[in-house]
Structure formats: C-alpha cells, structure tokens
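**User:** My hope is that you can spare some time for a protein that puzzles me. As I understand it, each token names a local backbone shape. I would be glad if you read both lines and explained how they fit together. The protein I mean follows directly.
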Amino acid sequence: MKTQIQNLNLKIGPYAVCPIPTGLFGLDGGAMFGTVPKVLWSKSNPTDEQNRILMEARGLLLKSPGCNILIDCGNGGDFTAKYGDKLGSKFVELYNIDKSGPSLEKSLRSHGLTVDDIHHVILTHLHFDHAGGATTIVNNQLVPTFPKAKYYIQRGNLETAQKPNLREKASYFGANFQPLIDSGSLIVLDGPAENLLPGISTILSNGHTQGQQMVKVSDSHNTLLYCGDVVPTSTHVRTAWLMGYDLHPLMLMEEKQKCLSEAADHGWYLFFEHDPYCDSARIEKNGHDFA
C-alpha cells in the first residue's frame, strides 16, 4: 500500500525540498486515464459537468544556501495577455484555469524567494502545463521568467517542440521556449545526466513524449523522483494506468515498470506533479504491479 504524503517536508543533501503549487486546472478525465474505465478512476478523481478532473501544476523547489533550483513551472500566469503563442481567455476557459488560488510567484514568496532568486530551472518537457511559467511578458516582450537562471531541457524534446507531431501540436507553444533560446538561457542535454547539479540526475523517458526527463534527487539517506508525466498522479502508479495523451503506451509501461521497481525496492519518494490531493508517496510492490 502506498504511503501518501501531503505537504511534503523533507531535506535531501543540502536541499530543503519544497512543493511549489502553481495553480489548479482541469483536463478531461477520460484523456487522463485512457482505456481505464471511468467507474474505476472516478472513485479517486471526481469529474465536473464537462468530465474534467481537477489537476495541479506542481513544481518543486530545491532550496539551499546560495543555490535555488526549480523543477517545472506550471501553466504560466499571462492568461489575460495574448502575445505570439501565449493564450488568453479561451485557454483559461478550455482548461478551467483557477486564477484565484496558488501561483508560481505566490508559492515562491511563501519561501522568501522571488523569480530573481532562482539559479537553475530543470524542465521535464515543454508541454504547456510544465513549461508555461518559463517565460513571461514584460513591457510587451516575451522574456525568461527567471532572469538569472539557466534552463535545462533534453534535445529530443526541444526538437519535438519545435516541430510537433499532430498529436501534440496543441501542447507545444514556441512562446514557452523560444525566449529561452534567444536569451542564451537554455542548456540542451543529450541523454540522461548524472550529477547535472550536486545530488541531482535525470532519467530519460520517451513513452509520454519524446525526450521527457524525470529528475532524481539523492543523498546517502533519501531519494526523491520527480515523475513528471511518467506518473502524473498517485492514481497512475499502477503500471497499465496510462493517459490517452501518451504517445507510446507499451514503451511507457516498460519505463514505469523499471523506475517504479527501483522506487519500491529502495524506498524512494515519488513526487506527483498533477495530483491535487497528494504531493508524494512511497510505494510497494503488489504482485506484478504497484500500490
């Protein structure tokens, strides 16, 4: 049985591990659970009148003296503006964006930080709900949200975002990454990165989208895996519970089996980006599956 954790309070190496909620939104429940019958997933993920389930866009702050690292940054906050590919009111309506609750800036302020205090931003991938907060509009110009930070992305995902396939075209917007390229802020990685930053490495996944990277944070006592869209919510820890959005379901199942086996064997924390009810969990093997 998985041990669920809300409001994670953990230290790994030099880092205080701080969940950064950036705002609630909604996605179609059927799309989020693919071939899994609604009678099963709706028990833990109730829908609204449009069949949308509640979703969080939750980043993770690794806070240490002299170095603050952010993993993913949500949908972004420029919903009332329309510039290039940044979307306005239709985006808010379609995805049921809640503008009244937490935001990236509010969550950083709760930890005594501003966007100027972030030194590194690791993007799992460039879908809008993970990278929308990477850029912002200042004086009618799109610029990096974190002016002093280096951003990290996998080459395979950047190339996919620049020339998206028809399935993903609605999820990738140049406004969320082109300013990073233009400013020289974007560092492009080629494959898994061991010790990308002290105590931090990345694990490559191609099942959901090409070139997604999960982020592993470790010391001699604890390991946390930021799952991104490999395991978007705690409900998705079961191997075959996949999203309709996933490009390569069988490949993703193999990737999940590998990383979740290691997490269960070694007591890793799994961090869920999209679960509005649960920040993280430790899981156990349940026969040939996980719980």
